[in-house]
Specification:
heterodimer; A: mainly alpha; two-stranded antiparallel ribbon; disordered C terminus; B: mainly alpha; ABC transporter involved in vitamin B12 uptake, BtuC; two-stranded antiparallel sheet; 12 helices; about 70% helix; about 5% strand; globular
Chain lengths: ~375, ~300
Amino acid sequence: MSQNSAKPLESNEKIDTQWSHRWRSVRTKSGALSFTLIFGLLLTLALIQAQGFKPIPTVWEGIQYSLGDPTSIARTLAWGLPLCVAAIGVALAFRSGMFNIGAEGQIYAGAMAAAIVGAYIGPMFTGLHLALCIIAAALIGGLIAGVLGWMRAVWGVDEVLSTLLSNYIIVLFCAYLATSPLRDPDRQSGTTKAVFDSAMFAEIMPKTGLRSAIFLVVVLCLAVWWLSEKSTLGYRWRMTGESASFAASVGINVKRAQIQSMVFSGALAGIAGALLVTASQGRYWTAIGSGVGWDAVLIALIGRARILPTIGWVLVYTIMRSGARGVEQVSEVPAELSLILIACIIIIAAARAGVLYKVTGIGRRLMPKREGDVNGMV
Amino acid sequence: MEWFEAFFGSGIRFTTPILLAALGGLFTAWTRDLNVGLEGAMIFGAFFGVMIGLNSESWVMAVVLTTFLGVMSGLIFGYIVAELKVNVFVAGIALNVLGAGGTVYLLRSLFGVKGTLSGESVPSIPRVDLPVISEIPFFGPILSGHTVLTYFSWVLVAFLIWAVHGTKLVRHLKASGEHPAALATAGGKVNGMRIFAQAWCFALCALAGVQLSLGQLSLFTEGMTSGIGFVALAAVIFSRGRVPLLAIMCFGFGLSSAASVVISDDIIPPQFAQMTPYVVAMIGLIIFARTSKGSAMRIATPVMDKL
């Protein structure tokens, strides 16, 4: 009797657990996000309070500054464009297990390439000139990352350290170019000649810095998402990142996948650099991309190297960063607030599982037993 | 010969912060939690050294308190990595960004200064003339006249060369990285060792930072560590956990940094000279990878797809 009734109950349970698993996964994800955001907000309020300003009105001013009216929104968006391209580039490499920390250097190299092509070739038909600038930047970025990726795949040169060191070499080399051979004699040292107008994206909204580059960025985002999540190539990269030995055993050429993902990652970082020149500064100068590459690395980590969450976090960070500028204007809280926030947010997002597990026994019941949640990162 | 003395003398000066940070990183390499955030910890050390020095007008206070702060933050970092199971690579990267952003933030919010913090009352760590050694004709001027921290780093190297063979502590540190289960069975504290290694690492990085800001210059500048922490990281990876090799590597990096100062701008553009330590490290990294077999030390990066 009991044996007979056991069967239907089992299948019922199966459906039940499937649904509850999905529900739990959604709940965990949104829980994680709100946990992180609430922590970030509290930290902001505390830091502003520590400076002796009223936290909530100050934060409100910051939000007004970044999102208050169409002009502010355009300004905020314009600033986020290069970061967005760089971040999805970094994410692409991370996902395949290649930790490209050299985005900063690749951005500088791309910016320099775009500045050279923009200033020394032409003027010519705008679309063509722009395309040349961006292709040059993508090539140089892809070449640098590709060589480093090749050294990792074939020679086993640790890519974290090699990309890290490449940053300093590239930035110094570009500084040399901008101060000696390519220096604009009419300006202070460290700037190159201004690019021709035909190498600049058209302005969409004057005085906000928002240029038509935004369309390119949207297209790139869609293309990279498709590449990473839907294409065979992206599947190979993801498998390689998950377990290189498993990927090799199912017939994926692991070395090729690693090098390919690095090339694409570097190319995107290079394009981000090109955007700094062609959609914003109009020339290269020695501190043109300071920090964008590092921001991109952090954001790709918070987004767990998935393209859509990464884009989402770029938006959040861009608003934060622009908001911090607004806060700086109404109070004495420095705009570096946003850097502190993003660094703390990544730690708290990564520690969330551990914190819940530690502080309350509830963690054990709330979270699905997946190894990644506790042992992994973010 | 004066040129030679100047070159080796400044080589030793440049070696000190690299060596201190690398000796810190070494412990975390032993526990297999190699800290990528040496750079961030150093810049905090450099900042707090000047800040405490400015307020107390005493370099001893600056060194002691900064080291104490280093130990405290190391304990927190170690807890986050070992107990809260945050991937050490992620935490280290975040630490670097926090260091770069946080020191600028503190500089502006506490002192209202952009760029450089200096002042009459900022002390500098005095240079010590070694009594007998300074008399030696050729080596005397090279080896003598450095800060206390420089000599401390040499003593530390000697101590660690001994400690690697003679002490339970180092055995436990290495075991917590290589055979954590065995250590736990033998009654050792795996996470305790991992946290201790981070505290040690932060303390030494703090000293490295103080050496930069008070030992060499007696001021703080934004981004003044300029990649020294990453060079130290390279030294830790090359040395494969061996102390004498580590010391030699650091001296090599110190000398290549000194080359960038000694060589005149007329011969090589300054940017190329500044590049030297990074290029040397990059070449070293390639040679290291080509010559080491199998279990080369890798930075513990997370698997992004396991989430």
